[in-house]
What we know:
By secondary structure, the chain is an alpha/beta fold. 38% of the residues lie in helices and 17% in strands.
Amino acid sequence: MLEIIGFTLEGCKTAQAAGAGRIELCDxxxxxxxxxxxxxxxxxxxxxxxxxxxxxxxxxxxxLYSDEEFDMMQSDIRLCKELGSDGxxxxxxxxxxxxxxxxxxxxxxxxxxxxxxxxxxFDRCNDPLKALEDITLCGCERILTSGQQATAAQGAxxxxxxxxxxxxxxxxxPGSGIxxxxxxxxxxxxxxVEFHSSARxxxxxxxxxxxxxxxxxxxxxxxxxxxxxxxxxxxxxxGQ
Length: 240
């Protein structure tokens, strides 16, 4: 399974055509992904026949949320259910770096029967093995992680440990810095069976007029179809 981040509607379309198994729908690539708009979710759901998981993150920065932000997350989950999403992606921590079990459990319950991925807030927690237990007990179906390192390749040792500890209770999905040049090696090193990538590329604007001094700001974050095809081919080879 290869999950691809959808930052634009065109990117979602490209990822699906290239063979992606699931889309994680996000806004604000510069912040690492935040909750997409109503219109974006609705349009993506209409377009996609593969599973659609929507990011539930009210802002960039840390994963310690106020009561008001938690209310926003609940409202967004309700909206995702109404629009026919297959799942949501979220993560909440306490100030001491532990998993916010109480609030996570409440959101998982609210999201049901949608699936829930606990995102890379996991990589900011204070004890990954304890966090694995906590997130499993909260009812999440998978954890997205780079092994508490900048990239999944650097965190492969911890990811392997998490995969082994998780057994069949929860899916461990490596993400961050994954591409066609390293995905096969990462699959072999970790034993993971689901992978997460942005396959990100920048598309040059087709605007005929570019304001002087803003030449670089009109380009668009999109998805590299060839890179997805190459990652899937590498995974197939690694599995043989």
